[in-house]
Amino acid sequence: xxxxxxxxxxxxxxTRGRNNQRISANTVRTRLSTSGLRARRPxxxxxxxxxxxxxxxxxxxxxxxxxxxxxxxxVFSDKSRFCxxxxxxxxxxxxxxxxxxxxxxxxxxxxxxxxxxxx
Length: 119
Description:
The protein has about 120 residues and is an alpha+beta fold. It has helices spanning about 10-15, 25-35, 50-65, 70; strands at about 40, 45, 80-85, 95, 105-110, 115-119. It has one domain (about 10-65, about 80-119). Helix 1 packs across helix 2.
């Protein structure tokens, strides 16, 4: 599948069966399901360069041996962000269960992509 974000309906319009006949969206869904692909919400994360990925990996490797006391010193935030500038929308893509963080299954989002309210 070239574009995992393409819906089954849009894929059926672009794909032709034998003898150049149209195929139904239901056929597309069935074939994708048979291949182990399901329609799921994408992981939405920041735009990461190769350098960012390397730095994150190095940080994780340096801190993998932390004991529970050291981990308790980390502060987690429970803030919620509400988008004002645009609708969040329900985007879905076709992926297998363990492909969540695979590069073509991530919808990169610019951190400063619009007005929002933090509470």
